[in-house]
Model the fold of this input.
Amino acid sequence: MNDAVAALREVDFGYADRPRIFHGLNFTLREGEQIGLYGPNGSGKTTFFRLMTGLEKPQKGGLFFHGIPVAGEADLHRLRCSIGFVVQNSDDQLFSSSVLEDVAFGPLNLGMNKKQARERAMNALSSLGIESLADRPPHKLSGGEKKLAALASVLSMQPEALLLDEPTMFLDEASREKLAYILKGQTITRIIISHDGEFLRETCTSFMRITPNGSVAVTQAFC
Ligand SMILES: Nc1ncnc2c1ncn2[C@@H]1O[C@H](COP(=O)(O)OP(=O)(O)OP(=O)(O)O)[C@@H](O)[C@H]1O
Ligand SMILES: [Mg+2]
Done:
């Protein structure tokens, strides 16, 4: 069996004053897995990603990165440098005055100098065909352009795994096809949340459904 990248063990979680979403959740993301995650609105898919990246802390149980409990800031930093999370709402991901700055932010954070970070950023932008957006202010982009810029800001870090929350939201047919093509050409470990079953079938090799009562079931077929 391949090595575990990240895992949730015996996790209970609910937001304050809200019903519990997960109870005794066990999940392991292993190297090379490409999982399509789906389930109804409000079932907890985004929350699951927030637990996997330490953005929410479970009331019980814990998060592990390569088998080691994620306990402090240093552990969280290591995890976040390795697991690229593209959030559902791109406005939460883009905060600089230009797209290039946003996309170079991760590489700079990894310790690269300005020239190296810029090169990484330009490569990530051109891999998505959006190098022309480099100098634009992120808050003035269209929904689809923002989504692609947010994706570039994660790809520029060359993470070992990707968590993509609704990556096709706002994308036109050509951008959606391009993204599917890019992902199909990469063996990178990933979990993709989408309501677009066709996209998940194209880009993932196994599937996971979250039910409204917070249980998860992994299947080989999308159903
Ligand atoms: N910050 C929060 N505080 C309180 N409740 C929240 C918060 N974020 C989400 N919730 C609630 O938690 C539940 C799960 O939300 P979540 O965003 O994980 O669902 P989802 O499966 O990603 O839905 P969608 O398909 O609409 O994106 C929902 O009932 C939602 O209203
Ligand atoms: Mg969501």
Notes: Strands lie at 4-13, 22-30, 34-38, 60-65, 68-69, 83-86, 161-165, 189-193, 206-210, 216-219.
